[in-house]
Amino acid sequence: MKRFERQLSFALGMCLSSAACIACFILLVLTESWLLALGIDSLIFLISFLVVYRMMIGMTEPWGKVVFALRRLADGDYRYRVEPSTDRFGVLVPYINELGQKLEKTRQSVEDQRDQLNTIVENAASPLILIDDKKRIIHANTLFKKMFQLSDDELAYQPYDALLPYPQLVDIIRATFANNQPMNKQAVLAFSIERRHFDIHTAPIQLSSQPKKGVVVVLHDITELKKLEKMRQDFVANVSHELKTPVTSIKGFAETLLENDGQNPEVVRQFLQIIWKESERLQHLIKDLLELSKIEQESFRLNWETVDLQDVLHDTLILLKDKAEKKQIAFTVRTEGDTRIAGDSERLKQMFMNVINNAIAYSPPESTVTVELKEKGDVVDWVTADEGIGIEEEEIPRIFERFYRVDKARSRDSGGTGLGLAIVKHLAEAHRAKIAVKSQPGHGTTFTISFRKHRPEPPAREGEAHAAATHL
């Protein structure tokens, strides 16, 4: 800009000076003194040039400052300000500085909105991606990159259909582009060996300033909801089946007794024993269902106290003595160290009863059930090992499900309801205990439950929920 000012000033000075010199030269010619005319002409030329040049610099320099300030603002330097001046262009300075302030505020507002949007996208509870009108992924939040195992370099403006190997997902995105309408669809996507359920939501990105559009895609992971729904359906089906069996038996034998009218006392006694056995089984099932429902409620609380697990084990073995003797099963008990813990004595006895009763039920006659209590630092391990039929490795994670039985016929014959280990699992979580199961078909099963010696803070179900870890 300064170069332009100098060139303009020089040109105008030259023009004005030349005109003055010509006029003066004509005047001096008339006086017929060439030497005097040449001297005067040179002096006038020099004086005129300097005066005009100085005038033009004074006129163009303020304008150059204005142009320079506008160029700085156009280049994005919104913090640049023009110094106040008293020249003819000084009236523009406040407006230029005000323009810079407004542009700076606008840029800051845009940056704040962008940061807010990035915060919302990055902290969204579901995977999310933005796709532009050229079908390229322009942004993906951390959850999406983690779930689909994609890096920033792999995602950088790549076509979505080349990066997402899921036809169901690609189809709904294409349909959104084609119809320009929000869409929703549930799909099952495979990740390695795992299959996860998603509720996919897509919506077009409408921009008032541009005719072109993009698409935003949100994937809600509903795998756990699907599992809970299936568990509920299975629970209803299992309860119906478990209730139907004893009710059918009771009804059938009662009808037979009514038809025979008590003619054969021995048959009557046999049928009554079956009815009593089935009604007792029905009573146990209802009791366990009510107990499990109570334990699963948020209002459930343990009666915390100091409990010696040796006392709990002693009381449990007395209650199960007759059942073990019927199968000629012997108990081997070992204790080591201080076995006192913080817990609920009645709930602990319930856990011991269910686990040891299962060991007896699934053990062959004339075998041994070994129970050990070991102090290990801040925990006490309760180990129960049998010599029973064992459990297949793939079945171990399921043994704590409601109504799941490794051997259904044997479990029903032993009077089991299929809810015992589910109750044990929930009570272990309430005590913040850890459960480990080791088993091999034909070589028995070993349950290890590790209890804390001191009451956990906050107590289970009273503070933040922490499920007990189950190591299989």
Please tell me about this protein's structure.
With 472 residues, the protein is of the alpha+beta class. The protein has four domains: 2-101, no CATH class; 124-221, 2-Layer Sandwich (Beta-Lactamase); 230-296, Signal transduction histidine kinase, dimerisation/phosphotransfer (DHp) domain (Helix Hairpins), CATH 1.10.287.130; 305-471, Heat Shock Protein 90 (2-Layer Sandwich), CATH 3.30.565. Helix content is 53%, strand content 18%. The protein has 14 helices and 13 strands. The protein has helices at 2-30, 34-74, 93-122, 142-148, 152-155, 160-163, 167-179, 223-260, 265-296, 309-319, 321-326, 345-361, 408-413, 420-430; strands at residues 128-131, 137-140, 183-191, 194-205, 214-221, 305-308, 330-336, 340-343, 368-376, 379-385, 434-439, 445-452, 470-471. The protein has a six-stranded mixed beta sheet, covered by helices on one side. Strands 2-1-5-4-3 form a five-stranded antiparallel beta sheet, sandwiched between helices. It has a two-stranded antiparallel ribbon with strand order 6-8. Helix 1 runs antiparallel to helix 2. The two termini are 79 Å apart. Residues 459-472 have low confidence and may be disordered.
